[in-house]
Amino acid sequence: MRGEPPTPTVADVDPFRGLGMPRIPGLSELLSLLQTQTEALAQLPRTLSDLNGTVRELTQATTMARETIESAQRIAERLEDLVEELEEPVRALRPGLERVGKVLDDPAVDTVPDTLRRIHEDLMPLIHGLRQAQTRVGSVTGLLRRRPRDETDDGYGPV
User: Quick one: pLDDT at residue 8?
Assistant: First the structure.
Protein backbone atom coordinates (compact mmCIF):
# COMPACT_ATOMS: atom_id res chain seq x y z
CA MET A 1 0.00 0.00 0.00
CA ARG A 2 2.99 2.27 0.42
CA GLY A 3 4.44 3.39 -2.79
CA GLU A 4 1.31 2.45 -4.77
CA PRO A 5 -0.53 5.26 -6.46
CA PRO A 6 -3.95 6.04 -4.94
CA THR A 7 -6.92 4.38 -6.64
CA PRO A 8 -8.62 6.88 -8.93
CA THR A 9 -12.23 7.79 -8.11
CA VAL A 10 -14.96 8.67 -10.57
CA ALA A 11 -14.22 12.33 -10.02
CA ASP A 12 -10.56 11.74 -11.03
CA VAL A 13 -11.32 9.80 -14.22
CA ASP A 14 -12.38 11.50 -17.41
CA PRO A 15 -14.66 9.05 -19.21
CA PHE A 16 -13.70 10.47 -22.57
CA ARG A 17 -9.92 10.28 -22.00
CA GLY A 18 -8.28 8.19 -24.57
CA LEU A 19 -11.13 8.67 -27.06
CA GLY A 20 -9.41 11.62 -28.63
CA MET A 21 -11.97 14.08 -27.28
CA PRO A 22 -10.92 17.16 -25.44
CA ARG A 23 -11.63 17.23 -21.72
CA ILE A 24 -14.91 19.00 -20.87
CA PRO A 25 -14.59 21.11 -17.73
CA GLY A 26 -17.06 20.09 -14.96
CA LEU A 27 -18.07 16.83 -16.64
CA SER A 28 -16.38 14.69 -13.98
CA GLU A 29 -18.17 16.60 -11.26
CA LEU A 30 -21.49 16.15 -13.08
CA LEU A 31 -20.92 12.41 -13.46
CA SER A 32 -20.02 12.17 -9.77
CA LEU A 33 -23.24 13.96 -8.80
CA LEU A 34 -25.27 11.69 -11.10
CA GLN A 35 -23.68 8.59 -9.56
CA THR A 36 -24.39 9.85 -6.00
CA GLN A 37 -27.98 10.62 -6.99
CA THR A 38 -28.37 7.16 -8.57
CA GLU A 39 -27.04 5.48 -5.41
CA ALA A 40 -29.41 7.55 -3.30
CA LEU A 41 -32.34 6.63 -5.55
CA ALA A 42 -31.36 2.97 -5.33
CA GLN A 43 -31.54 3.23 -1.53
CA LEU A 44 -34.91 5.05 -1.62
CA PRO A 45 -37.19 1.94 -1.62
CA ARG A 46 -35.37 0.49 1.41
CA THR A 47 -35.46 3.86 3.15
CA LEU A 48 -39.19 4.20 2.45
CA SER A 49 -39.79 0.66 3.68
CA ASP A 50 -37.88 1.40 6.90
CA LEU A 51 -39.80 4.65 7.30
CA ASN A 52 -43.10 2.85 6.73
CA GLY A 53 -42.21 0.24 9.41
CA THR A 54 -41.22 2.99 11.83
CA VAL A 55 -44.50 4.83 11.23
CA ARG A 56 -46.42 1.55 11.86
CA GLU A 57 -44.54 1.02 15.13
CA LEU A 58 -45.20 4.62 16.14
CA THR A 59 -48.91 4.14 15.38
CA GLN A 60 -49.00 0.99 17.52
CA ALA A 61 -47.19 2.72 20.36
CA THR A 62 -49.58 5.66 20.15
CA THR A 63 -52.58 3.31 20.22
CA MET A 64 -51.20 1.48 23.25
CA ALA A 65 -50.49 4.78 25.00
CA ARG A 66 -54.04 5.97 24.28
CA GLU A 67 -55.51 2.72 25.65
CA THR A 68 -53.31 2.97 28.73
CA ILE A 69 -54.38 6.55 29.34
CA GLU A 70 -58.05 5.59 28.94
CA SER A 71 -57.60 2.72 31.42
CA ALA A 72 -55.83 4.99 33.90
CA GLN A 73 -58.62 7.53 33.53
CA ARG A 74 -61.27 4.85 34.28
CA ILE A 75 -59.31 3.76 37.35
CA ALA A 76 -58.96 7.37 38.51
CA GLU A 77 -62.72 7.87 38.14
CA ARG A 78 -63.42 4.71 40.16
CA LEU A 79 -61.02 5.83 42.87
CA GLU A 80 -62.67 9.23 42.95
CA ASP A 81 -66.09 7.57 43.40
CA LEU A 82 -64.71 5.42 46.24
CA VAL A 83 -63.16 8.42 47.95
CA GLU A 84 -66.45 10.30 47.70
CA GLU A 85 -68.29 7.33 49.24
CA LEU A 86 -65.82 7.02 52.11
CA GLU A 87 -65.25 10.69 52.76
CA GLU A 88 -68.46 11.41 54.67
CA PRO A 89 -68.35 8.34 56.99
CA VAL A 90 -64.68 8.97 57.75
CA ARG A 91 -65.40 12.61 58.54
CA ALA A 92 -68.25 11.48 60.81
CA LEU A 93 -65.79 9.28 62.73
CA ARG A 94 -63.43 12.15 63.44
CA PRO A 95 -65.03 13.50 66.66
CA GLY A 96 -65.25 10.02 68.20
CA LEU A 97 -61.68 9.22 67.23
CA GLU A 98 -60.51 12.48 68.79
CA ARG A 99 -62.34 11.60 72.03
CA VAL A 100 -60.82 8.09 72.04
CA GLY A 101 -57.41 9.64 71.46
CA LYS A 102 -57.84 11.92 74.48
CA VAL A 103 -58.93 8.97 76.64
CA LEU A 104 -55.98 6.87 75.50
CA ASP A 105 -53.61 9.75 76.24
CA ASP A 106 -54.81 9.80 79.87
CA PRO A 107 -52.10 8.43 82.21
CA ALA A 108 -54.72 6.26 83.95
CA VAL A 109 -54.91 4.09 80.85
CA ASP A 110 -51.30 3.10 81.41
CA THR A 111 -52.30 1.50 84.74
CA VAL A 112 -55.01 -0.72 83.20
CA PRO A 113 -52.77 -3.78 82.61
CA ASP A 114 -51.49 -3.70 86.20
CA THR A 115 -55.02 -3.24 87.54
CA LEU A 116 -56.27 -6.21 85.53
CA ARG A 117 -53.36 -8.33 86.74
CA ARG A 118 -54.11 -7.45 90.37
CA ILE A 119 -57.81 -8.17 89.89
CA HIS A 120 -56.92 -11.53 88.42
CA GLU A 121 -54.50 -12.36 91.23
CA ASP A 122 -56.78 -11.13 94.06
CA LEU A 123 -60.29 -11.88 92.89
CA MET A 124 -59.87 -15.14 91.00
CA PRO A 125 -58.96 -17.15 94.13
CA LEU A 126 -61.91 -15.54 95.92
CA ILE A 127 -64.27 -16.45 93.08
CA HIS A 128 -62.88 -19.98 93.05
CA GLY A 129 -63.52 -20.28 96.78
CA LEU A 130 -67.06 -18.95 96.37
CA ARG A 131 -67.76 -21.52 93.65
CA GLN A 132 -66.48 -24.33 95.84
CA ALA A 133 -68.65 -23.11 98.71
CA GLN A 134 -71.63 -22.88 96.37
CA THR A 135 -71.02 -26.45 95.21
CA ARG A 136 -70.84 -27.68 98.81
CA VAL A 137 -74.01 -25.83 99.75
CA GLY A 138 -75.69 -27.31 96.70
CA SER A 139 -74.65 -30.82 97.76
CA VAL A 140 -75.92 -30.30 101.30
CA THR A 141 -79.19 -28.90 99.97
CA GLY A 142 -79.52 -31.89 97.65
CA LEU A 143 -78.99 -34.28 100.56
CA LEU A 144 -81.58 -32.51 102.65
CA ARG A 145 -84.14 -32.64 99.86
CA ARG A 146 -83.64 -36.36 99.31
CA ARG A 147 -84.06 -37.31 102.97
CA PRO A 148 -87.51 -38.81 103.50
CA ARG A 149 -89.75 -36.90 105.88
CA ASP A 150 -91.86 -38.32 108.57
CA GLU A 151 -95.51 -37.45 108.35
CA THR A 152 -95.29 -35.88 111.76
CA ASP A 153 -92.28 -33.87 110.69
CA ASP A 154 -93.21 -30.28 110.10
CA GLY A 155 -89.79 -29.55 108.63
CA TYR A 156 -88.52 -27.67 111.65
CA GLY A 157 -86.67 -30.50 113.27
CA PRO A 158 -87.48 -32.82 116.19
CA VAL A 159 -90.13 -31.76 118.63
Answer: 53
